[in-house]
Design a protein that fits this description.
This protein is of the alpha+beta class. The protein is built from six helices and 17 strands. The N and C termini lie far apart (51 Å).
Length: 301
């Protein structure tokens, strides 16, 4: 299996920042237009995820100038997560493994997560029963994930834009999308740049699993890599479909170990570089994986 783009690059996106709600500071972060939000994964020199760090372990630089961290939230905070599943005709022989992988992600996630499902082939649709926006119930998720309608082409970008409409109803600012697909988009009315801009504005982090057949002309690993890198996520392209269940469990674990930080952003309409550093003598040299910058809001008149 080959992971690509561990939150190293970001092309754009001023994300809504946050203030911690007094009722439950460990679970809810509310929007504040004056703050920029980051999600960060910390690893040691062996690539192992490091959890349990406090705010004092981090130092934030914007354009190489140290900035105070206004908001800090430790790992395993609940998120709003969407599972986006390819139902195109080519997925027929992979259906069983795809369903098992999506369920493994759901079961390994924080029980307090808000979750929803989007299916797509040449059209996109929600998987939960009508009237249910989100659920944390594994049985409901199992039913939603299993509602495949195999056939047709691949409208991935339209599916992601549909997922964005559900994010607008989310209780948690931290948002995650898991994509499971075996082909590149060939049917959407939406263009990739529009999807990238929308997801970065939402503050959503994309994790993608591409299960491409050899010689598939519609395969587009670059698009999945872009979606992951720009949003601060990760893309995987396993050579063996049997690996995707383990990958989805790994993604769920990474989401649960991410830190969320907020800082006061500029209002000059310009791009600003971000560098986040973590230090703890117990772990030696640490690497922090997050997006590399943001576009500031334009000055208000």
């Amino acid at each position: 299996m080959r992971p690509v783009g561990i939150a190293a690059l970001s092309l754009c996106g001023l994300l809504g920042g946050c203030t911690i709600a007094p009722a439950d500071p460990q679970t809810t972060i509310r929007a504040d237009v004056n703050l920029v939000q980051l999600h960060a994964t910390v690893t040691d020199s062996h690539g192992h995820t490091v959890s349990g760090l406090g705010k004092d372990a981090f130092e934030l630089f914007v354009d190489d100038v140290s900035q105070p961290i206004a908001i800090f939230q430790g790992e395993d905070a609940p998120v709003t997560a969407g599972i986006v599943m390819d139902n195109s005709a080519s997925m027929a022989p992979k259906r069983k493994e795809a369903i098992a992988a999506a369920l493994a992600f759901a079961r390994a996630s924080n029980p307090r997560d808000q979750m929803f499902v989007v299916h797509f082939n040449d059209r996109a649709r929600f998987g939960l029963k009508e009237g249910t926006l989100f659920t944390g119930d594994v049985a409901e998720l199992e039913a939603a994930i299993g509602r495949f309608e195999l056939g047709g082409t691949t409208a991935l970008y339209d599916a992601l834009m549909l997922a964005r409409t559900r994010f607008s109803r989310a209780a948690y600012v931290k948002k995650v999308l898991l994509i499971i697909t075996d082909g590149g988009d060939n049917a959407s009315h939406t263009a990739l740049p529009d999807v990238l801009n929308g997801l970065t504005q939402d503050g959503a982090v994309v994790f993608a699993v591409g299960i491409f057949d050899p010689g598939n002309r519609d395969a587009n690993p670059r698009a999945l890599t872009q979606l992951a890198e720009v949003t601060g996520g990760q893309a995987f392209f396993p050579s063996d479909i049997a690996d995707i269940k383990k990958i989805c469990e790994q993604i769920a674990a990474e989401v649960r170990h991410q830190y969320t930080l907020g800082f006061h952003g500029a209002e000059d309409g310009k791009y600003h570089r971000i560098r986040l550093v973590a230090k703890d003598p117990k772990y030696g040299k640490l690497a922090v994986h997050t997006r590399a910058g943001y576009f500031a809001a334009k000055p208000s008149n």
